[in-house]
Write a structure and sequence with these properties.
Elements (H helix, E strand, L loop, with lengths): L15 E7 L4 E9 L5 E2 L2 E4 L4 H21 L5 E8 L2 H4 L2 H13 L4 E2 L8 H7 L20 H20 L8 E5 L5 H11 L2 E5 L3 H10 L4 E2 L3 H5 L5 E4 L8 H6 L4 E2 L12 H7 L3 E2 L2 H4 L2 H10 L4 H9 L1 H15 L3 H18 L7
Parallel strand pairs: 3-5, 3-6, 4-5, 7-8, 7-10, 8-9, 10-11, 11-12
Antiparallel strand pairs: 1-2, 2-5
């Protein structure tokens, strides 16, 4: 997968892609900046043991593009970026590596702000911040927003409420059965919101610690062996909350839910899946729309974090989701296409203002 826009693929057309290496600490990182039309690029850093450099590059290109659309729909004056560190965080992560990475972020002079993602956590952001000011998602004791999964889950819940209203006429999951794939950072908080709302929850996770947490914290959750068992259960809503590519051809053909709303990024395994979902009568709320609560939370940190203000903004995902679902119906397109159009319109209209000269 190339960086330059030579074939029109979704992952191309980036403004800047930076490869970073520090041999002494073992750091191998890629920072992708898709767009700064709305402002500095903001997106988390993923620490993951990719099979190859090509896989790492493909992931950062997709993720950074998704962040541009996510930030645009969330109403933020921020562009889209993402970074990946290639390696096993359980083995490779160290203070030296994180600080080396921080210096590379600093070298971009504010074109990119980083935050947490898969494999990185709030304490890691505090370490990175010792070398750069362009980092969010820091701990509360350092004036940060803390765990961004809290408002990510809250936003997914709001998007799910809007989808429920669109599908069944009421903005609640009470009496519905929701299947959660992944009880990690976001899934566990989402489960709590759903149970409080009166939903029945079925879940699965590859991590035994997450399953143990569910048994202890919410014994009413029905745990199943794997994702295949989950998607073939009698679900009203399917919530992918693990890694990307959750909605592939096999999954969509087997899925029994009527609504898909989850916290994972890049849920569509390939272009065209959104059409297959629509053909099967499954309502899909675009992932970058509903999981924007986390980026709203860490973005609020840039102006001085206030949790209640950030939560209020994340609650707005309900209205944005409702608007996109209505737009999709009125224009006869999928919600994914409607969401893309709105995001692209905002990037174009606001980005155009950069042509107005300011001395």
């Amino acid at each position: 997968m190339g960086v330059f826009d030579t074939d029109g693929t979704d992952a191309s057309g980036h403004e800047q892609v930076v490869f970073c290496q520090d041999r002494q600490t073992g750091l191998k990182a890629i920072i992708g900046i898709y767009s700064t039309a709305l402002g500095p690029a903001l997106g988390g850093t993923r620490f993951y043991p990719y099979e190859s450099e090509a896989d790492a590059l493909a992931d950062v290109l997709k993720l950074s593009r998704g962040m541009a659309y996510k930030n645009a729909l969330a109403g933020l004056d921020l562009g889209g970026g993402k970074a990946v560190i290639w390696g096993d965080p359980a083995r490779a992560k160290s203070e030296g590596l994180l600080r080396a990475y921080g210096r590379f972020v600093e070298s971009l002079h504010g074109r990119y702000y980083t935050a947490c993602d898969v494999g990185t956590y709030v304490p890691d952001m505090d370490v990175i911040a010792r070398e750069t000011t362009y980092v969010t998602g820091r701990s509360l004791e350092h004036g940060g927003a803390g765990d961004s999964s809290i408002l990510t889950a809250w936003g997914v819940f709001q998007g799910m409420r809007a989808a429920a209203e669109h599908a069944w006429g009421r903005p609640t999951l009470a009496g519905r059965t929701v299947g959660i794939a992944g009880l990690g950072k976001v899934g566990k908080y989402l489960a709590g919101h759903l149970i409080e709302d009166g939903a029945a929850v079925i879940a699965t996770d590859v991590n035994e610690a997450a399953l143990s947490w569910a048994r202890t914290t919410y014994p009413q959750i029905e745990l199943v062996a794997d994702t295949q068992a989950l998607i073939t259960s009698d679900l009203d809503v399917y919530a992918p909350c693990a890694l990307g590519g959750a909605l592939d051809d096999d999954t969509v053909s087997a899925l029994r839910a009527k609504v898909v709303t989850g916290g994972a990024n890049n849920q569509l395994a390939h272009p065209g899946i959104e059409k297959t979902l629509a053909e099967r009568g499954i309502l899909y709320t675009p992932d970058y729309l509903v999981n924007a609560g986390g980026v709203i939370q860490v973005a609020d940190e840039i102006e001085g974090f206030n949790f209640e203000r950030a939560k209020l903004r994340a609650t707005g995902i309900f209205e944005t989701t409702r608007r996109i679902l209505q737009l999709a119906d009125s224009e006869g397109v999928s919600p994914a296409v409607a969401a893309d159009r709105l995001a692209e319109q905002r990037m174009a209209e606001v980005g155009r203002l950069r042509s107005i000269y300011l001395s």
